[in-house]
Amino acid sequence: MGHWMALGMLVMPRLLLAQEDAASPDGRYTLPEQGDVVGQVQTVEATQEDTLIDIGLDHGIGYNAMRAANPDTRVWLPGEGTDVVLPTRYILPPGPREGIVVNLAELRLYYYPSVGHGEPPRVETYPIGIGRLDWQTPLGTTTVTHKLENPAWYPPQSIIKEKAEMGETLPSVVPPGPDNPLGEHAMLLGIPGYLIHGTNRPQGVGMRVSHGCIRMLPGDIEDLIYRVPKGTQVRLINEPVKIGWSPAGVLEVQSYPIPETSPEELATRVEKTFASVTQVANERGVLVDYARLQSLIVNADGIPHPVTLTVAPFEVPYHFYDQVALDPTLLSQLDASPMQLQKD
């Protein structure tokens, strides 16, 4: 919920909320010693009463991510015994692994908590809701400036006007309670008018539905707010395609669907991704399966997939470049070939 005013300063931490369960819940991982990937894709069996939304939120996955991973599954009635994919494997966002990182394209928040001496570094990841296309969440680097408990919401004139055009009347202030869209907890950001907050409509987490702020599930924000110090850095990025190495040294790509993408925008994303993946592959001398990579971008499912060829597709004699006019993409891949070219 963007452009806010709120009351109710958080006065003291709840120490019990800062304690982690003995068993790691979904979304909390030890950072790998090598590579950029955490977690594993899971499959669960739906019961008669389950909805796809409920299954996802029970495992820390938002609506859009569940739809992308299960495109052929009915949302409101998957059906008893239906296998449902949980996309709980993540390539970590690019950049420093510290503070909070929000990837808007992914609709997820990553938190890298400080750890004690001798403890392994960790990451926690949570589903979020973000701004609609006409109320986009801003990008940039900021900090957590204040933390609020039971905030009141003072809707700005822009939202009051929007609601009036829809035949709804908003009061000048919405007090804490079940009708407050900020939920029971909020973290104020250094970008004026924006916060990370809870919600009174948890089904909207994992969608682009807010007026620009970042929504979290009530239990997630309640747990997080008491452990995130004031001054924590928050990076707001928009990376629809993430690239990383698995702990086993396999190059993987994780792609997310972007709404209202024109053919020209999609072609540009494919071209940029080809260039980025080629550069990363060349650093380790591996070949990329470009047909698979293009399919992952066009048919994004939000799940990491390997994109490397296991073997070189053909032998390359030294005079090959003199005999064939190569496409630039293929040429760059030949430079990455692990084979040593032999002269006649």
Overall average pLDDT: 82
Number of strands: 17
Q: What integer value in Å does the Rg equal?
A: 23 Å
Strands ordered across the widest β-sheet: 6-7-8-13-11-10-9-14
The helix count comes to 8
CATH class of the largest domain: Mainly Beta
Order of helices and strands: EEEHHEEEEEEHEEEEHEEEHHEHH
Q: Structural class from helices and strands?
A: alpha+beta
What is the CATH superfamily label of the largest domain? L,D-transpeptidase catalytic domain-like
Domain L,D-TPase catalytic: 98-237
GO biological process, one term: peptidoglycan-protein cross-linking
Organism: Modicisalibacter xianhensis
Protein name: L,D-transpeptidase ErfK/SrfK
What does this molecule look like?
- The chain has 344 residues and is of the alpha+beta class.
- The protein folds into two domains: 15-40 and 88-237, L,D-transpeptidase catalytic domain-like (Beta Barrel), CATH 2.40.440; 241-335, no CATH class.
- 22% of the residues lie in helices and 23% in strands.
- The chain has an eight-stranded mixed beta barrel. Strands 15-16-17 form a three-stranded antiparallel sheet, with helices on one face. The chain has a two-stranded antiparallel ribbon with strand order 2-5.
- The radius of gyration is 23 Å and the shape is globular.
